[in-house]
Amino acid sequence: MKRRVVVTGMGAVTPIGIGVEEFWKGICQEKIGFAPITRFDTTDYKCKLAAEVKEFAPEKYMDKKAARRMELFCQYAVAAAGEAIEDAGLDMGKEDPWRMGCCVGSGTGSLQAVEREYGRLTEKGPSRVGPLFVPLMISNMAAGNVSIAFGLKGKSLNVSTACATGTHSIGEAFRSVQYGELDVCVAGGTEAAVTPMGIAGFSALTALSVCQDPTRCSIPFDKDRSGFVMGEGAGIVVLEELEHAVRRGAHIYAEVLGYGCSSDAYHITSPAEDGSGAAKAMQNALEDGNINPEEVTYINAHGTATHLNDLFETRAIKLAFGSHAGKLKINSTKSMIGHLLGAAGAVEFIACVKEMQESFIHRTVGFQEAEEELDLDYCKESCHVEIPYAISNSLGFGGHNGSLLIGQY
Predict the structure, then answer these.
(1) What are residue 366's phi and psi, to 5 degrees?
(2) Which one is catalytic: 163, 217, 352, 379?
(3) Which residues contact 179 (CB under 8 A, 6 or more apart)?
(4) Please, what's the largest Cα pairwise distance for the chain?
(5) Is 163 a catalytic site residue?
(6) Which of 145, 191, 210, 236 allows an S-S link to 11, with CB 3.0 to 4.6 Å?
(7) 47 annotated active-site
(8) Which residues pair with 18 in a beta bridge?
């Protein structure tokens, strides 16, 4: 028997605000998080801008000693998870910890640790590499630290599917609750890859925008789009079995109805040109939730502002929704926060839930005009509209596609 799964808590660390309330305020104000990179000297780099998290102080969210044993991506995850658990009103002393799980992923883990310890290795020799290098660096430590911090003793997973990580993490948590492995799962994604290697690596792929105008550097679906802008942060949600949530009087934001996945099996960085892989993920999510395509109002697109992604995702939406595609509202939250890689899908899922709750769809900031084939409604303006069902998409390097279908509760 499939059990119903609802969202009862949310937490966010983003470039336009720390905490869901500040993040949502930034969304409504069409705030952009793009500015010159402050983490390192970009003199020799073509890419000068990123969407960094501002004024993050880990000691506000966790014990100082514990924070020192975490890299930044883990600190972001623990901070967002703490907010989500508090928001859900979970009294951990009254819960069975073995029925509470964790599924938090990261696309890269800690590039900071790799850069730092490689410097020690080359300058001072192998004996000077830090003893905690590996447990600080590996991507599963986000899930590990969240579960340790909050006593989550049930199923604990680290999903790492590049830019689809956050969506797949929430989807796999949904399945775990839906089929009775857990009653509650803390799920999402986290990333902190604004580092010399992170920026240099994505620049070498020609994936990053080199535009130095913050208002035009991340413009999904626009004919002048030139690549994505690196963002960072974390998005964490509490997913809960419906009856469990109702029994304890939890506030319910939305219901997760479907989860769809697919693989392009095509190319390590480019989506399938006809959009068939992403289309299948959306179709699978709709079928899983037993919802007709015509019932969907809104899609929070992957929308990276790279030339190929936005074109092929448009083709995918047309393939999945047919003539109804022209009636959909489609936007990209990356127009304000950039691309958070492994955290992107989770933060965008939170934006999707908030938009459903507020009957408000934010505009794709910076979008002015699309080329001929990009002829859908990419939300040049914000609008107030009822959203009974919505889809949040993520597409990752390696051909990983993930779609989450949510509905009003």
Answers:
(1) 90, -15
(2) 163
(3) 2, 3
(4) 63
(5) yes
(6) 236
(7) no
(8) 13
